[in-house]
Amino acid sequence: MIAAHTSDFTVVGNHLAQHRELSCMAIGLAVHILSLRDGSRVDIRSLADRFPEGRDRFAEALRELEKHGYLARVRQPLADGTWTTVTYAYNNPAAVAAQRAREAVTAAEAADVARPEPAPKPPAEPPAPAPAPAPAPRSAPVRRPLPTPTAYAPDLHRIAADLLSGLRVQEPRLTLAERDVRRLAPAVAAWLERGTAPDAVRHALTSGLPPETLHHPAGFLAHRLTALLPPPLPAGTAPPPPPDPLQNCDLCDRAFRAPGPGRCRSCRSGTPRVDDS
C-alpha cells in the first residue's frame, strides 16, 4: 500500500531516481541534498560525519552529480580575504539548461533591437596628427607573501600567538584583532623556527616605531615580519629550545614558566618574593 505524503516530503523526478549513468551512492546523495534547507552544509567532511560512508565515496558521488548538472560548486571570496565553496543543487538540470538557453536567446534578440542604426559617414578630412603616446601606467608594487614555517609545530604557533597578543602591553598602538593574530602567527612561527628567540622577535616588531598613529598595525607588523625575516640557521646549528609555557603557582597563583603545573621557585624554596608583604 502506498500512502500519500501530506507534509515533510521531497519531490524527486524519475530522471534522477532512475538515472542510467549515476551510481546508487550519487542518487541517494542527491535525494539527501535536495531534502535539506538552503544554507545546509554539504561539504565532504560534514557528509562523512553524518553518514557511515568515507570521504572518498562522497567525493566521487559529488563529482558524478556535478558532471551531470545536479550540482554546481562555486568558489567565492569572503570579506576577510579568504575563500569558500558554495554548492548549488538543481532538481531538474535539463529544465535549468533550457531556461538558460531561452534567456540567452532573449538577451541576444534584445541587443539586436536596441542596436542603433549606423550614422552616416562624415566627409573625409585630412588625418589629424598622431597624439603623443600616453605614459605607461605605474604597476602596483607586488606584495610579498607572509613567511610560513617549513613544518607545522603547535608549540611554535602557540608561542607566536601569545607573543602577538601581548604586544599591546608594551606598545598599545600594536593592539591586534583576534583574526589578525591568527593570520600573523604562522609568520612569527617561521621566525622562531629559524632560531630567533621570542624576545628578539618582540624587539624587531616594537623597536623604532614611527611617531605618528598606526592606522593599520596588522599591516605594519606583516611588513616587518616579511622584510626583516632572518635567514635559516647554518646546517648543523641547533635552534634554541622554545621557552616553557606559563603556569600559575598552586600556592601564590603567580605566573611562572615551567614544563607543567606546580609551584613557583619562591614557594618551592620558602623564600618570599620582593613584592611579598
Short description:
The chain is mostly helical and 277 residues long. It contains eleven helices and four strands, in the order H-H-H-H-E-E-H-H-H-H-H-H-E-E-H.
| Classification by helices and strands | mainly alpha
Shape: flat
The succession of helices and strands, N to C, reads: HHHHEEHHHHHHEEH
Instruction: Kindly provide the name of the CATH class of the domain at 14-94.
Output: Mainly Alpha
What is the number of helical segments per DSSP (H or I, 4+ residues)? 11
Please give the largest β-sheet.
Answer: 2 strands, antiparallel
Rounded to the nearest angstrom, the radius of gyration is 32 Å
Query: How confident overall, as mean pLDDT?
Result: 83
Helix content: 40-55%
What is the CATH third-level topology name of the domain at 14-94? Arc Repressor Mutant, subunit A
Per CATH, the architecture of the domain at 14-94 is Orthogonal Bundle
Strand content: 5-15%
The number of strands is 4
Give an account of the 3D structure:
This protein is mainly alpha-helical and 277 residues long. It is 41% helix and 7% strand. The protein is built from 11 helices and 4 strands; from the N terminus they run ααααββααααααββα. Helix 2 packs across helix 4 and helix 8 runs parallel beside helix 10 (217-227). The longest helix is centred in the middle third of the chain and has 22 residues, at 93-114.
